[in-house]
Amino acid sequence: MTHRLRGPVRIVGTGLLGTSIGLGLAARGVEVQLADASPTAMRLAADYGAGRPAEPGDAPELIVVAVPPDVTAQVVAAELAAFPEAVVTDVASVKAVPLQELRAMGADVSRYLGSHPMAGRERSGALAGSGDLFVGRPWVIAGHDGISYARGSLVDDLILDLGAVPIESSPEDHDRAVAIVSHVPQLVSSLMAARLADAPDEALRLAGGGVRDVTRVAASDPALWIQILGANAPAVVEQLRALQGDLAAVVDALDDVDASGSRRAIADALAAGNEGVGRLPGKHGTHARYVPVQIRVDDRPGQLARLLADIGDAEVNLEDVRLDHAEGAQFGVAEITVLPEAVRPLHDALEERGWQVVA
To answer: Measured between alpha carbons, how far is 20 from 17 in angstroms, rounded to an integer?
Structure first.
């Protein structure tokens, strides 16, 4: 299998991201050397095929630091000092603070280029690793003036080898961007999920796709997120204050819904949400609007696979798919998202094949 990196590549930190990077590179024939403060974690990642344990005398071409944000700068500095010929990147979700700390320590930032793959899972650790985790996902390269293009190209090669899409940004622009698309959504999800902790069982039995969508990422690791939010606090606070104002306006309108302008304020908030979600890029970076089609799927082996095969036979390109179950039901509802012009052909094709289109 061809690859751009010659290697070897040293990965420091064998959690979800480090293991996934190792699995992806190893599958492409790149030599991967693994290091971790926990020998058990390192050996587990090696057992899963993410690379081999690092050894004295190793001379990596590229080093990927995949450790918690609060120790990223210290580990990067140590790797720069230990391997004076290697280029070092990190995959922490905050970029400005590590660069500032490295400069303050006098580290050789001419061989350092921070990056951040916009990919992850609610689960952590080597067991959750996947070599395909980054395929098609944005991967930010947080450039700075201290590194040459030739050295930085190794990070480009890493990203392309793993099937991700490189996106150039400054560290400061990156941190402002992830505050609104990642860090604040995490907080909103967690705060909403917290409302469920004391909810009566009768209410939870009614839970459908809406509440599951909003709370999906609330299962993330609190210890990791404390570090992320603390490192990016100014950008997160800016977004939270704006959200606080929007929420207060809606609360005031609902508190006296018959007052003049209250319904207009609520409608404007909902319409602004429509506008915002419409700006989210779909496949290939497009901003096309999609329509959900819901199909009943019996809870029997092979039914979802048959549905997807029938959609393919109908020559309809699906944009997304999810499956919801109601408590106690012996069937689920698959929501297939397609372009508006595909709705009628898909509806007709599925009904011809015996599927019940719910909506």
So the answer is: 5
